[in-house]
Write a structure and sequence with these properties.
The complex is a heterodimer of chains A (about 200) and B (about 200).
Chain A lengths: L8 E2 L2 E2 H9 L7 E4 L3 H11 L4 E4 L8 H8 L7 E4 L3 E3 L1 H11 L5 E6 L7 E5 L7 E6 L6 E9 L11 H5 L5 E5 L2 E3 L3 H15 L3
Chain B lengths: L2 E5 L1 H5 L4 H6 L5 H12 L5 H12 L4 H9 L5 H9 L4 E8 H11 L2 E10 L2 E6 L3 H11 L4 E6 L5 H6 L2 E5 L7 H6 L2 E3 L2 H10 L1
Parallel strand pairs in B: 1-2, 1-5, 2-3, 5-6, 6-7
Antiparallel strand pairs in B: 3-4
Helix pairs in contact in B: 5-7
Classes of the chains: A alpha+beta (about 200), B alpha/beta (about 200).
């Protein structure tokens, strides 16, 4: 439909606005990296979120997410929460992730495998919880997948054109925590996320 | 790393465009506002636009111009930043020294502007500031290892192109689309801007 995924309406709220609303009480400053249809996001933030910093990636067609996140790191020198803009996250889960991230150098967000194009993780932990990630893998499928968010230092993203999880791989095994989220990559993901949002909005 | 912070004046440090305020003395504020907006958006070249606006507004007595500019509101966060980082701040403005020098002297930081003189009762623009040249001069002075430029209009693009980091500022009005496209960062709030600048 020509919209950046972060501008999709999920349960009556633009996805980006959900993320900003949930992050603002928890972090000092929010940077939004824009590329595809940047003017839509810039206008949206000018209207509704004037205190976010918009970082432009005009080369978005030729670069990957890791490059965008590296650009977005401008002005950050300590640990940063990095996340894709197409995530629908349960607010309490996000807050818990950020809280845990305060005491670890690197914290990898993982979630129960559900998305159509998952990067699965080999993980360890006690009694059904996740505490460490030891490997990323496209195959075979596994119960957990990379959640497309992590907390770490900006220097970790200097790997250039590789995917974000590939930038993290050299630092595995690393601390990990489950985050209750949906990633919106496909139409099927969008349907799942829309249903999931109803539970999140009820405070479940 | 020592950073030079270079700011546009109108619509960045000041929360109103200054020339339309002067134009109110002649009752042509709306017309000058339109001309200013067209210039900011890059539809009229800045040098020609400045000369035309100076031709019109040169009719206002200089003392009255200074009184008017004295009343133009300034962004408190940016004024505080200029006060805290005085020696590292530069105001790079195409506005005329005859008009804005008292304001800029009050702000206390470094500044460079276009220049005009009064000749036979008329205002004559002597030199239209080349903002790219202004940035090159700061760089060649060798006192700062990095230059950050903050502005909102098309005439800030030359400054953006010479700086190490360009910030399109939309705190007063949306930055000109061409200025936003020439910048690495867009910020719509002065408090956020100052926090970012301090963090760089």
């Amino acid at each position: 439909m020509g919209l950046p995924k972060c501008m999709l309406d999920i349960g009556g709220t633009v996805l980006l606005s959900r993320l900003i609303r949930d992050l603002q009480p928890l972090v000092g400053r929010i940077h939004v990296v824009v590329g595809y249809r940047e003017e839509l996001i810039v206008e949206h933030c000018a209207r509704h979120h004037r205190d976010v910093v918009l970082v432009r990636n005009p080369d978005f067609r030729d670069t990957n997410t890791s490059h965008s996140l590296m650009l977005g790191s401008v002005g950050f020198h300590r640990k940063v929460l990095y996340m894709d803009g197409d995530l629908v996250v349960r607010p309490k889960s996000l807050a818990a992730f950020i809280e845990r991230g305060k005491s670890t150098d690197l914290l990898v967000g993982v979630t129960k495998a559900k998305s159509t194009e998952a990067v699965f993780v080999e993980a360890s932990g006690d009694a059904g919880t996740i505490s460490r990630v030891t490997r990323f893998q496209r195959h075979p499928a596994a119960p957990w997948e990379w959640g497309n968010l992590f907390i770490g230092r900006p220097g970790l993203l200097t790997c250039g054109s590789r995917y974000v999880y590939e930038c993290i791989e050299p630092y595995l095994p690393a601390a990990a925590q489950e985050v209750d989220l949906f990633e919106v990559d496909t139409a099927e993901d969008l349907a799942l996320a829309t249903e999931g949002t109803k539970a999140f909005d009820r405070g479940s | 790393m020592s950073t030079a912070y270079c700011f546009d004046l109108d619509g960045t440090i000041s929360t109103l465009e200054i020339l339309p305020c002067i134009a109110a003395e002649l009752g042509v504020s709306d017309e000058i506002s339109s001309l200013t907006r067209l210039t900011m958006d890059g539809h009229i070249p800045f040098p020609e636009s400045l000369r035309l606006r100076a031709l019109i507004l040169g009719q206002v007595a200089i003392e009255r111009v200074h009184q008017t500019i004295d009343m133009v509101p300034l962004d408190p966060h940016l004024v505080s930043f200029l006060s805290e980082y005085t020696k590292d701040c530069f105001i790079i403005t195409g506005n005329l020294d005859l008009w804005i020098a008292p304001l800029l002297d009050r702000l206390g930081c470094n500044w460079v502007s276009s220049q005009a003189i009064h000749v036979e009762g008329r205002l004559r623009v002597e030199h239209v500031l080349d903002k790219s040249q202004a940035i090159r001069q700061i760089r060649s002075a060798g006192t700062h290892s990095r230059i950050v430029a903050v502005g909102d209009g098309a005439n800030d693009i030359p400054m953006f192109q010479e700086a190490d980091l360009a910030v399109a500022y939309g705190g007063v009005h949306p930055p000109a689309p061409s200025a936003a496209a020439a910048a690495s960062i867009i910020v719509h709030d002065s408090k956020t801007l100052c926090t970012l600048l301090k963090a760089l």
